[in-house]
Design goal:
The protein has three helices and four strands; from the N terminus they run αβββαβα. A four-stranded mixed sheet has the order 3-2-1-4. A hairpin with a 5-residue loop joins β1 and β2. The radius of gyration is 15 Å and the shape is globular.
Length: 87
Amino acid sequence: MTIKELKKAFKKNQLPVQLLSQEGDIYLCRVDGKHLLRNNDTSPAIFHSISEAKETLGDPIAPHLQLVFSETYDEMFHPENQTKSSK
């Protein structure tokens, strides 16, 4: 799904839009839990800040963005939530 397609689809139905925090200052966008937002050349749309993503996606979508941190951060900050293998 491209940014243009997302904006058009979002007008009809407010799809869940997640901003996925990757390593460093890289953010990817996932739509409806399954579609990675892409540029017109089919490469992944990469944002370098939350502000850049909000500005690019526009006012109708920006307030609905859900920030999702990568699993690495969960492992570092919430090790108690990791499943333990049984012996």
